[in-house]
# Entry
Amino acid sequence: MDRIPVIFDGDPGHDDAIAWMLAKASPLLDIRAVTSVCGNQTIEKTTYNAMRICTLLGIDAPIAMGKPAPLMAPPMNAPSVHGQSGLDGPKLPEPSMPLCELRSVELMAKVLRKSEDPVTIVATGPQTNVAALLLAHPELKSKIARISFMGGGIAHGNWTPAAEFNILVDPEAADIVMKSGIPITMSGLDVTEKALIYPADFERVRAVGNEVARVVADWLEFFYEFHRRLGYPGAPLHDPVAVVSLIRPDLLETKALCVQIETKGEYCRGATIGHDRAPANARVNLGIDRDGFADLLVEAVRAYGEARS
Ligand code: BDR
Ligand code: CA
# Structure
């Protein structure tokens, strides 16, 4: 079976970390590189988190540090959701690997050039690195099979009424990506706020009993606490949906839409406008089989081994 080659670009982040956990557990994906981007926290913190997550999960792909700021806008972080470290909660192992000497855009370019098959990019943070790659290396577009990203929301935003965090942080980057002509899958709030993992599921994860299970259960509890105060009945696992889209598309409802990014609006900057008045540029995930997703999560954690006492 040919595995799908993937590059992970994210700003971990509890849900980014769980997305990578799902990916590493899947026999369908071949992780070729991991790149950090500033978003949930500063680039130094998200890079350190990326290295600690990869150490925990046994991801041995090269890890590179991404852009320290959005293309044009000033940086914006989300400590209220992910804590001061960007990944507060359980203690994690210190990085067991060196940081790649290349920066993210050059590592992505190297992986694309070297790969015989086109590579899928999974972007779970602001799209700064991906847009910078497209600007610096337009000749490599044909080596990108698809960009599967978490971001936006056709119906509503979360950071503002109109805009979701990842797109709001760097709307200019998202605009470049959406206009690139590369096949795109968008998993926005429309679907990710239905990807709810309930406290009862946290216990199913914890009961698996291995080290990854314990850490993921603690991440879920930490991530849920912020959302519980807002009235959510569970933790909306935004970023993992961008991985589900690759490994279990049968769990998702999808619609082809034209998605345009508002870069100028006073109240609507960062909004993702989805419609069918122009040719579609994205497959947009809109619904998910929640129970199937929860089962997938528990099974993924099981792939990290039997319980150790
Ligand atoms: C997105 O924002 C971040 O805080 C999460 O990691 C996710 O990528 C949800 O709006
Ligand atoms: Ca993220």
Observations:
- The chain has one domain: 4-302.
- Residues 13, 15-16, 40, 78, 81, 124-125, 150, 158, 164-166, 238-239 surround beta-D-ribofuranose (ligand 1) (CB under 6 Å).
- The chain is about 40% helix and 20% strand.
